Amino acid sequence: xxxxxxxxxxxxxxxxxxxxxxxxxxxxxxxxxxxxxxxxxxxxxxxxxxxxxxxxxxxxxxxxxxxxxxxxxxxxxxxxxxxxxxxxxxxxxxxxxxxxxxxxxxxxxxxxxxxxxxxxxxxxxxxxxxxxxxxxxxxxxxxx
Length: 144
What we know:
Blueprint: H1 3-36, H2 45-55, H3 62-72, H4 80-98, H5 105-115, H6 121-131, H7 139-142
Helix pairs in contact: 2-4, 3-5, 4-5
């Protein structure tokens, strides 16, 4: 094959790679856009997360904050802030709905399980087992 043929394949390869990267990026941006759309109650998913986090600001002890950091440690660093915020919102919701004055480790475990998508339960369970975290009181949440 001559030099022009190889160059053409090289260009086609990079066009396919660029279209793939742009598709992945577009999908990620679309998912973020869906979180901002208002639900039936007029608030978006992000609005509710901010509501629960703001409402629970004074309820977090140093122990519960460090435990939250331990729970989000397996999340890649690029996504850790987003995961921390959504998990903290779910933990706060659990604690507030139970009427407790402070966020405990049990709230953290339950909120962590509730915030995790069902498709990730296997890795969640292996992470909790590896860290020696007792989640036996919340196994019923994993079976739903």
